[in-house]
Amino acid sequence: MKLLALTPALMGLVAFAQASTITYTTVTGFFLQDETATDASTFDYTAVNFGLLNRTYPADQKLKHAKELTQWERFYNQVEQLNDESHSDIEYKVLFLGRHGEGWHNAAQTYYGDAAWNCYWAEENGNSTATWMDAELTDNGVDQALVAHNFWQKEIDEQRIHTPDNYFVSPLTRTLQTANYTFTDLKFPKGAAKFSPLIKELFREGISIHTCDHRHPRSYIHDLFPEWPIEKGFSEEDELWNGVTAETSAAQDVRSTTVLDEVFFTSASSKKDSFVSVTSHSGEISSILRVVGHRTFSLNTGAVIPVLVKAERDAKAKATTTSVAWTTSAHCTVPPLTSVTACVCPSSAVPVTTPLVTDV
């Protein structure tokens, strides 16, 4: 589905959408993350070659020196063959979906506990020791991004992996920082695409009333990384966050479909740009996985999941408009009384649905 008229008035209440003409499916059998036996909570992508399975491919038969190639070289050749032999309305891409490293909002949620965080503290800009509105990375988060950096370099050096042809990044600060630490100063293979990520609004985290989901202005983002391109039409102020209404999972999946439609079938040579990096967030990556039909696979902060996606375009499909509602979220106006499983506001402070932070 394609979002229409992304205005504050509309996005604060309902997402209007036009049905997508592209169907996405995950092509399984290539990564450990595809398999139900793989436990996401303990999975370490750096220990298992990004999860790429050790196997032969149909495309190996056409290689003269297949035994001399690494697993990633042969897999890239397999993806190329899939694209070469497919109809013009079918496209295959490998999405490297990377979650940002730990941010100050993650640390605060751990400190306060889920219940108190969700119904009060997440609606604040921060406390006396930390700020989590559009949170920056903690020192631990920087270290996690550097783990990804070092692993990419190892894969380049030892596996001769084909590095991404295109890079995309969410506009939130923690993802911008993660992408920077991960890919800047890598010793890329000869002829590799330059790391110059396109900042795209719709790859952001699921939009809740939490201030960590409220992005900085466009000018702030540009000043952080002035050489990185920002997509056309990107607004100066955040028009999607209002501190009152939040995306439902259905609304977020509409958004994720829209942004994937902007990644696939982009040009006549789009099939050749088959490896794509997206630095994003846990909620948004979960949404993308739902859209492409992948099994649920939650990422730890700083982790990466590659997914082989088949996109099939229906040129004869007729556009239809639909709508997906957002929801209001009640929260406390003062620090709550909490239990293990729920948040309870003090009796003198009933839950409200107005923003705690007024400078939005």
TrEMBL record:
A single MF term (Gene Ontology): phosphatase activity
Coiled coil: none
SUPFAM superfamilies with a match to the protein in the record: Phosphoglycerate mutase-like
GO cellular component terms, A-Z: cytoplasm
Keywords: Signal
InterPro entries in the record: His_Pase_superF_clade-1, His_PPase_superfam, PGM_Phosphatase
Superkingdom in the source lineage: Eukaryota
Entry-linked SMART domains: PGAM
Secretion signal, residue range per the UniProt entry: 1-19
The protein's name in its UniProt record: Histidine phosphatase superfamily clade-1
Source organism (scientific name): Penicillium frequentans
